[in-house]
């Protein structure tokens, strides 16, 4: 980890397009990159910029607690490059992550000028190849604890009713008991941690690459398959043909495993809790959160969920 000239204290810069401009300039200067003309692509949990001078993406984390995750993501990325695995890359000459103004800044090679997602079949190919790799101990990957992750995600849900909070916590407790009884059948090992169609992009040279590598962990491999299965089976976000191709190319149909429903319920609860943190910021998020909680209560209407 490298500290920028602002050092450890928080500069107090607001996490807005205007407030982050000085921080972006300072981070780029520290990395010896030109921030002139940088384009803000997204402003959410992270501020994401595309540099004009070079095919580089700058990511500024909202929360200082992201430091350990981003250190791991950079190390994972560099290791995957040694394995010639198709994933996002980091500029070789930049020492990172940086801490500038109390925020964590990382630099990534741009995959292409305009976002184009890969296919479900390509996701299956990437996961199958990833799951064959044996990670080095030097990566110090954490164990994925879904119950702890759910508990943490249910904290600080401002803007939701006490009734909804209690319902979600009780659902988490019940699912935790079910999860402890699961008998996994795929080998335990390295997972991406958020493996969905939204995390593979088409590279400018045509091949698909895996992105957002900060969730890498050690866990049953079933976790990397569950989102594609439930996106098809519960929400209709993938077609039957797409899902059949995913199963064929990966070589395992998670929906035939007895633990699928419990795993899907837990992942679904993570999705709902994440959305619950957005309700005070976004009217669309508030509407979707209400729809999803109502669906969990009634076990109906999952086909009406919208991607978010």
Automatic annotation (TrEMBL):
Origin superkingdom: Bacteria
Domain Aminoglycoside phosphotransferase: 45-261
Pfam family, one: APH
PANTHER family attached to this UniProt entry: AMINOGLYCOSIDE PHOSPHOTRANSFERASE DOMAIN-CONTAINING PROTEIN-RELATED, AMINOGLYCOSIDE PHOSPHOTRANSFERASE-RELATED-RELATED
Protein name, as recorded: Aminoglycoside phosphotransferase family protein
Lineage: Bacteria, Bacillati, Actinomycetota, Actinomycetes, Kitasatosporales
């Amino acid at each position: 980890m490298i500290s920028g000239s602002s050092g450890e204290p928080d500069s107090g810069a607001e996490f807005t397009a205007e407030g982050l401009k000085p921080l972006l300039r300072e981070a780029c200067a520290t990395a010896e990159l030109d921030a002139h003309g940088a384009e803000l692509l997204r402003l959410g949990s992270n501020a994401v910029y595309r540099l004009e001078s070079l095919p580089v993406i700058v990511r500024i984390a909202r929360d200082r607690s992201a430091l350990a995750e981003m250190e791991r993501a950079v190390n994972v990325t560099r290791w995957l490059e040694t394995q010639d695995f198709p994933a996002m890359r980091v500029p070789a000459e930049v020492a990172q992550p940086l801490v500038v103004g109390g925020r964590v800044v990382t630099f990534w090679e741009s995959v292409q000028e305009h976002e184009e997602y890969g296919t479900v079949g390509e996701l299956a190919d990437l996961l199958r190849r990833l799951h064959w790799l044996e990670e080095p101990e030097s990566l110090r990957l954490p164990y994925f604890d879904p119950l702890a992750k759910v508990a943490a995600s249910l904290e600080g849900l401002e803007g939701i009713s006490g009734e909804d909070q209690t319902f979600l916590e009780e659902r988490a407790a019940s699912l935790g008991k079910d999860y402890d009884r699961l008998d996994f059948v795929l080998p335990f090992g390295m997972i991406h941690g958020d493996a969905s169609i939204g995390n593979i992009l088409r590279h400018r040279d045509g091949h698909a690459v895996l992105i957002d590598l900060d969730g890498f962990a050690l866990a049953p491999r079933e976790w990397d398959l569950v989102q594609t299965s439930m996106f098809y089976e519960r929400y209709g976000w993938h077609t039957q043909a797409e899902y059949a191709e995913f199963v064929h190319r990966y070589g395992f149909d998670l929906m035939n495993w007895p633990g699928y429903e419990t795993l899907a319920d837990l992942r679904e609860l993570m999705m709902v809790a994440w959305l619950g943190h957005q309700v005070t910021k976004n009217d669309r998020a508030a509407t979707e959160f209400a729809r999803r909680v109502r669906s969990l209560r009634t076990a109906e209407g999952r086909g009406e969920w919208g991607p978010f």
